[in-house]
Structures are given as structure tokens and as C-alpha cells.
Design brief:
This protein has about 300 residues and is of the alpha/beta class. It folds into two domains: about 230 residues, Phosphoenolpyruvate-binding domains (TIM Barrel), CATH 3.20.20; about 45 residues, no CATH class. The chain contains 13 helices and eight strands. Strands 1-2-3-4-5-6-7-8 form an eight-stranded parallel barrel, surrounded by nine helices. Helix 7 packs parallel to helix 8 and helix 8 packs across helix 9. It is globular and about 65 Å long. The chain starts with a helix and ends in a 6-residue tail after the last helix. The structure holds sulfopyruvate and magnesium ion. Sulfopyruvate binds next to helix 4. The site of sulfopyruvate (SPV) has 12 residues, from helix 4.
């Protein structure tokens, strides 16, 4: 049974003895166990993921953009991202790996982003070698890659700025951009040399063949992180066998929420009544319990004694 007094709205990163980055490093970088990171795009989705039993969170650029009504094309600013990350961090005790896109500019923007993410209690940042403004990896065919030397220097600048306070995941978009495995592997080596802690290799195929081929060629020089959004049919046993380090379930809470909201809106429009949907949606008591309204009531007893009369 989870300690409910700590689960949601804890005091952020200071409330734990071990730093979030150490926890994430243990999961992503030094564990022989396959780790899972669950997408969160706000405080509520973070709290729900923690309650479900996940041990780490992915602050997804796509899902955060979507929840703000933006496209995943750097329409949300870095400061909007940082603000949402703060809510995610504050709403669970889990380490949060933040999707930092391409760093929102050059090395200077990327190291500023990393510094701000550290201040807000993130555990790590993933930076991808796409050009600003990026577009989601599954949209269209135009995915120009950043220059490998420039992106390596950007990673170096981030590492020099945040050292081990944030896990630095270098994400390779070469396969998304239509380049071959050689390009992906040579970029991975360049990013490892630049100080990355782990490599995220992304693929838009519906089978995991590219990812597994990458893992074979890479030979575990650094831990591998994957995002099986399109190749969801592959069982995770294949990733364990390939010694993949971390699987990110990148957008499933956002998509589940979208489907549920669409359905409920449609039914209320059609039925002009909520009676039939009541049994299918979260009760208000569940909302109050998850967000620990009881803690507030106890605090009022303590700090607002006049309420007693
Ligand atoms: C995200 O969740 O924003 C990601 C993963 O970057 S993907 O959408 O698959 O590119
Ligand atoms: Mg993204």
C-alpha cells in the first residue's frame, strides 16, 4: 500500500533523500532491469501514473503541446514547458525525464533550458538532433537533422552546465529522417563522446526491426532508450533480450484522455443528461482522494483553529 501522505503534492524534489537524477540514473543507466517511463502532461496525469505503479515519468512534448492546444512543432515555448514540468514534478515523487526537443535553439538555449529544468526538479532531459522548429517525428517527411558536430557541442554545453544533476539522453532522429543505420550509429558514437548518459533511438516503423538492428550494432556502449509508439505489437521480452534499458510509453495517457473526453462530450450532447455516463467517469470522491483534500482538511485543523467554532 502506497504511503498516501507523500504520493501527490509532495514538496517536490527536496522531499526525497536520493535525488531524482540518481533515481533516474539507476533506472535508465545502470539497471539490468528493463525500465518503463510513463507519459505525463500535467499534474493529474503524473499523479495517476504514480498511483498505477510506474517508477518514472516522461514529460512528453507531444502530450504537453496537445494539452495546451498547440502542435508538437515548438509552438509551446521553453518557459511554458518548464512551467508544466514543475506541475508534473510537484504532483508525484517520481523522477521525470523531460522531452526537451532540440533544445529550443543553439547550445545556449539548450543549456538555459537544462538549467531551468534542474531548478524545477526534473531528473533528466532528452535532446534530439532535429532542427528548430521541430515537427513531431510521425508527421510528414521533412525532418532535417542538426549538424552532428553542432549538436555534439550542444550536448557538451548542456553536460558542462548541469553535470550529473540531470541525466542527459541524446535522441537520434536519423532513422526518422530516412538515413541509414550507419548514420544513426555514427551519430550515437559522437553523442556518447560528447557526454550523453544514454541514447534514445527513434523509429517510425510498425515493426521493431530497426531498433533491434541498432541495438545489435551499438553493443551497449551506452544504455538505449526506445519509444515503441508505432511498433507497439512487439512484446517487451524482445527488448529485454536486446538489452534495451528503457521503454517510454510516450503519449498514452493523453490519447486515452482524448478518447474519453470525446466520448463523454458526444454522449452529453446527444442525451442532454449525464445519468448514463456517471457510472463510467471518476467520482468526485476519487478526485478529492487523489489530490489529497484530506491533507488540506488536517492542515486547516492545525493552522486555522478558528474553523473549529
Ligand atoms: C513525445 O512524446 O513528444 C516524443 C515521442 O517526442 S514521439 O511523439 O514519438 O516523437
Ligand atoms: Mg517529443
Amino acid at each position: 500500500m502506497q504511503d498516501q501522505s507523500q504520493s501527490v503534492l509532495a514538496n517536490g524534489p527536496d522531499s526525497t533523500d536520493i535525488s531524482h537524477s540518481e533515481t533516474l540514473r539507476a533506472q535508465v543507466c545502470s539497471s539490468s532491469e528493463l525500465a518503463f517511463l510513463m507519459e505525463a502532461h500535467d499534474g493529474l496525469s503524473a499523479a495517476i501514473a504514480e498511483r498505477a505503479g510506474f517508477k518514472g515519468l516522461w514529460a512528453s512534448g507531444l502530450s504537453i503541446a496537445c494539452s495546451l492546444g498547440y502542435r508538437d512543432a515548438n509552438e509551446a515555448s521553453w518557459s511554458q514547458l518548464v512551467d508544466v514540468v514543475e506541475r508534473i514534478v510537484d504532483s508525484s515523487r517520481l523522477p521525470v525525464l523531460v522531452d526537451g526537443d532540440g533544445g529550443f535553439g543553439n547550445f545556449n538555449n539548450a543549456r538555459l533550458l537544462a538549467r531551468k529544468l534542474r531548478q524545477r526538479g526534473a531528473a533528466g532531459v532528452a535532446l534530439e538532433d532535429s532542427c528548430f522548429p521541430k515537427i513531431n517525428s510521425f508527421v510528414g517527411d521533412r525532418h532535417p537533422l542538426a549538424d552532428v558536430d553542432e549538436f555534439s557541442c550542444l550536448l557538451r554545453a548542456v553536460k558542462d552546465t548541469v553535470a550529473d544533476d540531470l541525466i542527459l539522453v541524446a535522441r537520434i532522429e536519423a532513422l526518422i529522417a530516412g538515413h541509414g543505420m550507419d548514420e544513426a550509429i555514427s551519430r550515437a558514437h559522437a553523442y556518447a563522446d560528447a557526454g550523453a548518459d544514454a541514447i534514445l533511438i527513434h523509429s517510425r516503423r510498425t515493426a521493431a526491426d530497426e531498433i533491434l538492428a541498432f541495438a545489435r550494432a551499438w553493443q551497449n556502449r551506452l544504455p538505449i532508450v526506445i519509444v515503441p509508439t508505432r511498433y507497439y505489437q512487439t512484446p517487451v521480452s524482445a527488448y529485454r533480450k536486446a538489452r534495451i534499458s528503457t521503454v517510454i510509453w510516450a503519449n498514452h495517457s493523453m490519447r486515452a484522455a482524448m478518447a474519453a473526453m470525446r466520448q463523454v462530450c458526444g454522449r452529453i450532447i446527444a442525451e442532454e443528461n449525464t445519468a448514463s455516463i456517471e457510472p463510467e467517469i471518476a467520482t468526485l470522491d476519487e478526485v478529492f482522494e487523489l489530490l489529497r483534500y484530506n491533507e488540506l482538511a488536517r492542515a486547516e485543523e492545525r493552522y486555522l483553529p478558528e474553523l473549529r467554532c
